[in-house]
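User: Run a structure prediction on this.
Assistant: Running it now.
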Amino acid sequence: MANTIELATKFLPYVDEIFTKESQRSLVTNQDFSWDGAHTIKVYRVTTADMTDYNRAGADNGHWSRYGEVQGLDATTQAMTLRKDRSFTFAIDALDTDETVRQLQAGSALARQLREVVVPEVDTWVYNEMCENAGTIAAAKALTPANILDEIMAANLALDDAYAPDAGRVLVVTPAVYQVMKKAKDIIMETDIAQDMRLRGVIATIDGANVVKVSANRVPSAFGFLLVHPVACVAPVKLEDYKIHDNPPGISGALVEGRINYDAFVLANKSKAIYYQAQA
């Protein structure tokens, strides 16, 4: 009669974490306005007057002023109301923590929630808002090694014509588009990047713009590239509140709760500092 042997199973004190990507949205947005004490803020947009010829002789030109017809100026507002008020919660039983060799703990679980769920959600919202409200949205086309440089230069020209600041422009690409750029014979990318910029996500410079590579999961499905100056989009995070309750009523263990209030707004008068190229 054959012997019966039960083989041992061993669980290691190790969690197989999934790969995550740090956020680079601070490179393409700004925090110029404060929502402290308010749910909505408004910024003014003021028009200008047309130029005309000065009537030096003072002859009758239908206007009492030699400067021409007196014009009025419009002062309208752009209202920015925070729309995203998001939350999460989960509980970790005390015995689950003990019997998983303490790999299931509230602190590490909260950190995992932030990097795998919260950060990608906020990034996705911000990039979508920028693509949808870009001042220039080019006709969708296939990006190839033969045309990618021309398209990037056309984007830079559009920002030049809109008087967008030269310094600080950022070219946002997906890994797939970055591969296309590396295959282009005419593109010479400067990869000697300062360490502080490299830590923030800048991988190269091209045509004066910092190149940032963003996961395709955080941009629209037809995304080609964004050329943007951060002055154009404000991305406030008004509230970030994350709590771990130890043995709250009704739970033996930890209760984790989180809330984040955020949004993204493209300023109407600065929207031309965002150029979006979609792929066909």
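The chain has two domains: 25-30+82-278, 40-81.
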